[in-house]
Amino acid sequence: MLYEFPPFRLDTANQCLLQKGPSGADVRIQLPPKAFFVLQHLVDNANRLVTHNELMEKVWPDVFVQPEVLASHIRDLRAALGDDARKPKFIETLARRGYRFIGKVGTNNAVAAHDTIDLASGRLVGRESPLSKLQQCYRAANVGQRQLVFVTGEPGIGKTALCLEFLRRIRGIDQPPYEAWGQCIEGYGIQEPYSPILKAISELCKRNGEPIIRVLKAKARTCILQFSDLLSPSERSALEIDVRGATSGRMLREVLDGLEALSESRPLTLVLDDLQWVDRATVDVISEFARRQQSARILVIGTLRPLEAFLNENPIKMLKDELLAHRLCSEISLAGLTQSAIAEYLDQLFTGSDLRNGLAELLYRRSEGNPLFMVAALEHSFEQRLLFEEDGRLHLRSPLDQLVLDIPQSLRSMIEAQVDRLSAEERRVLEAASVAGALFSPESIAVASEQAVERVEDICHNLGRRNQIVRTAGVQHLADGTTLVLYEFVHVLYRDVLYEQQPLGRRSTRHQLVGCQLEKLHVGHTDEIAAELALHFEHASDWGRALKYLRLAAENSERRYSHREAIALLLRALELVSSISAEQKRDAELQILERLAMIYVASLDSRCVEAYQRLAETASTFGLHEVSAQALLNLATCLSWDNADGCLKVTRRASEIITILPDPLTQARMRMSCDFWHIWAGGWNSEAANQVRKTFRGIRHRCERTLLAPQLIEYGMIQWASSEYGESYECVSEGLEALSEALGAQNPYLSIAYQKAQFYLPRALLFRGEWGKALQTVNTSIALADKNGDSFPAQMLRLTRAWIHFHAMDFREVVALSEPLEDTAERFGGSYLVRLSLLLSGSAYVALGNYKRALEKLMTAQKEMNSHAIVLDWCFRLPLHAALAELWLSTGTLTKAHEEASRYLDLALSTEDYTYQAFAAEVSARVALADKDLNTAEEFISQALRAVEEREVPLAKWHVHATAAAVYKSTCKNILRRKHRHAARVAIHSLAESLEANHPLRPIFLSSPPVSRVLADDVIHAR
């Protein structure tokens, strides 16, 4: 809306006061934002008393301000208008009541929009068929059939105009939908994840308020966290706790869940414009949206230039083709306008023109029906004064054939001709704007255009009024309360021409100036525009700043749970490191490598190996031995998942470096980690284990807990392998607490120590006999991992749950949990998953009596172990030999049963794992019993009993006592038989009671044949 009260005009769209200057051009009068809103409300209510309270509530809602503030703004307005309070022409004061605007006010939207004919504002022509298709898709979406439509075509063909017209039409229906527009921005490879989606959601929140925000808080927590201004501090803190460890999988899922939840109350139309520049995370959202099966009242429209997407290698082109092949989307391919459509367009602008058909034929031939070319050609002809309008009719100053000669031959040359006709002052402003990007404010480009801000505002405003090259694009509210009017190019081709015509050096200088100005405008909040700043400073060859903002942009990607985009940004930063000074290079390269390696680990990306290798070598080159040693220890962790020998080799290199570290406590902590890896990757070593314990006890109370967190966890893992399950649980728990303190709000999954620790809490509880607590812990962790979209931890934890079910005799569930993970060998770290899943399912099949299937799986596991060692292979061989011994014993193959039982016992005795020592001796006793060798059976069961007496090993306890009862029954030692039968029963009930009374696993355990035989035997003898 534009109000006129001569000689002033109030432009509410651009939030400015204009005064006609001596030359006839508008001059902008600067008003503070609040003063403008006071004037607007007075003018909106011209000739009516507006009370003090009304103005205060309108301009300062929910904020208490002194009445003097309003009076101050009224004085500013009178000064701007040249008004006299005693003889007012515009603002009249009504004492103690308020103010009244008394100037004669008129509205003139035509003048507000342009001073010349607005050739781009005519009704859309020649697009009824595409509009009909969109309306058909909308009707399908309205009844719950989710719709994805790609509107494709060449630049200037009218894709955006079609979408705008479609939105205009559906606003007029009985129940208009939620609508949102997400604009993709050309980022030259530097793009923030989910950018157009988040822009669209932000628009929805601003337009519709609390109902939208409430749904997103419930359904899309990772998403709503991206909008800090929508959350109170307490809400933000609570949500940050809930989303810790989230991944891109959870963000993607919750974005769609949130949008689908919104569509339950009203249909939702989402337009994603210029998808040829879309970021990869948004491509994933589009793909998942199309593939979901459930009902949703959502229509997604994406505009796309397929050729440009192909040339940019943007995956959206391939996705579109794939979805079309599977009938998961629709495509509306826009062709040029027909000659009759162009004639219809001319009829809208000029009634009864004799030139209609001839001009339509000319425009069609030259533009090939491209609407942007058509409009630009008409504008060109008007500016050349070849065409003019009089009394609503179109007239020609010279014959039509002369008009042919003056219209450039291509759209780009047409735009170049328009640009060439700009004044030098206008061209400088628009060149600076083309450097600034798709959206710009006069404040951001003033310095780069060598003009005062006020003059830039006037130039942009006058160009925008005519819709010539640029147009207004809303406002931006900065953190300090400043409001900026935004402009954008009418079409990206205008920006391209203006940008490309500048010499490289001038462009570089302007990128620097725009970047510096944006830093000033966003001081204290530059992280919000980090990707944009990185782009400017990289083009300006300001490598230090470019690196700074690339790293900030990577952090933004991490906050959006998008590791892939964060990796891309950090890799780009790593490429630029060589361009900065030597003193800056060291810290920058090390910090980038460290962050990159951590993200690789969290993503289970094999590139973590290369990143830690480079980090260790780079740190060593700079003489930073502690950093180098820590990188090698982290590298050892990465290698351990698939290469135990490589892990040990790296650990030995770390040990050599540790000896030259100056700080004894640092030396001790790292040496302890080296000893840990010698055990975990190389096999149990009592001397190394004792050294770990000695070192840990020596440093525990001398180091800060947060610093000692990794060693707390490693010590807990060693104690787990030593059958000290209570101490293991306490240390791992304490280590996790210390890690949480150290990490603060950071994603814990970026910590290698956290990755290790989360698997050993439930394992300690399992071996401690606290099955209920173990299941509760592991199920909570699985739910969180699933919710966060973190597949590797979820898979590992499911195998831990399968382990619990195995000892509780729920063998069918063990198979169901473990078999799906046997095909993950190809992924990084997959060897660990495959071996453990093969061992669990093979052992379960032995118990289920499917010996052929069991043998296949156990032999595959053994072959894997023999081919190459990985972490904990020495530990996994214990259940392998246990299962093989059980298999041969169950099938009556006693020779092989003796061999496997013997290997099992020898291996168990080489460790300090008393659970497996007891199990191994107990199996040997049963093999001897089956072979009628009662003396040997007694020897082995005595050995098993010593193991369960020396340590608290509840998993093995009932098995050992039950077998002891069977051995002593065979040797007719009835007192001992009764004693051990009772002990077995007590141990069984202790394990069962660790589960809640109604837990489904409890009856499965108690009714399993081995357990029920022990309990039934007790009942018989009690009678």
Mean pLDDT figure: 88
Poorly predicted runs are: 109-116, 1018-1023
Biggest pleated sheet: 5 strands, antiparallel
Straight-line N-to-C gap: 97 Å
- Tell me the radius of gyration: 37 Å
**Secondary-structure-derived class:** alpha+beta
Can you list the strand order of the major beta sheet? 4-3-2-1-8
The coarse silhouette is elongated
Percent in strands = 5-15%
Total number of helices? 49
Describe the 3D structure.
The protein has 1023 residues and is an alpha+beta fold. The protein has a five-stranded antiparallel β-sheet. It has a five-stranded parallel β-sheet with strand order 10-11-12-9-13, sandwiched between helices. A hairpin with a 2-residue loop joins strand 14 (387-390) and strand 15 (393-396). Helix 43 (894-909) runs antiparallel to helix 44 and helix 44 packs antiparallel against helix 45 (934-950). Mean pLDDT is 88; it is low at 109-116 and 1018-1023.
Helix/strand layout:
Blueprint: E1 2-5, E2 8-11, E3 16-20, E4 26-29, H1 33-44, E5 50-51, H2 52-59, H3 67-81, E6 91-94, E7 98-101, E8 106-107, H4 109-113, H5 128-142, E9 147-152, H6 159-170, E10 178-183, H7 195-208, H8 210-219, H9 221-224, H10 233-242, H11 248-262, E11 268-273, H12 280-291, E12 298-304, H13 306-311, H14 316-325, E13 330-333, H15 339-349, H16 356-367, H17 371-383, E14 387-390, E15 393-396, H18 400-406, H19 411-420, H20 424-436, E16 439-440, H21 442-445, H22 453-465, E17 470-477, E18 483-489, H23 492-500, H24 504-521, H25 530-539, H26 543-559, H27 563-576, H28 582-602, H29 607-621, H30 625-640, H31 644-658, H32 664-682, H33 686-699, H34 705-721, H35 725-743, H36 752-768, H37 771-787, H38 791-807, H39 811-818, H40 830-848, H41 851-867, H42 873-890, H43 894-909, H44 914-930, H45 934-950, H46 954-970, H47 974-993, H48 1001-1007, H49 1009-1022
Parallel strand pairs: 9-12, 9-13, 10-11, 11-12
Antiparallel strand pairs: 1-2, 1-8, 2-3, 3-4, 5-7, 6-7, 14-15, 16-18, 17-18
Helix pairs in contact: 1-3, 5-6, 8-11, 11-12, 15-16, 16-17, 17-19, 19-23, 20-23, 24-25, 25-26, 26-27, 27-28, 28-29, 29-30, 30-31, 30-32, 31-32, 32-33, 32-34, 33-34, 34-35, 34-36, 35-36, 36-37, 36-38, 37-38, 38-39, 38-40, 39-40, 40-41, 40-42, 41-42, 42-43, 42-44, 43-44, 44-45, 44-46, 45-46, 46-47, ...
